[in-house]
Amino acid sequence: MNLDHTVCALSSANGLRLLGALSLLCIQSVFFVSEARAQSMQDDSLEKTVEESRVAAFRLAEPSIAEQLTSVGERFSQQTKTVKDPAALRQLALAEGLKLWQQARQRFAADAVLDDRPLYWQRLVVAPMIRARAKQLGFKPLVIAQVMAALEQASRGQTDVRWTVPNARRILITGFDPFSLDKNISQSNPSGAVALALDGRVFEVDGVTVEINAAVFPVRYPDFDAGVLEQWLAPHLTSGGLDLFASVSMGRDQFDLERFPGRRRSSSALGNLQEHTGGTAASPKPGLLDGKPLDGPEFVEFSLPAAVMQQAQGEFEIRDNHRVSTLEGGVFEAVSLAALHGQTAVQGSGGGYLSNEISYRSIRLANELGVALPMGHIHTPRIEGQAPQVVNLIIQQVQQMLLLAAMTQR
Question: Distance (Å, rounded) from C-alpha 125 to C-alpha 136?
Answer without folding.
Answer: 17
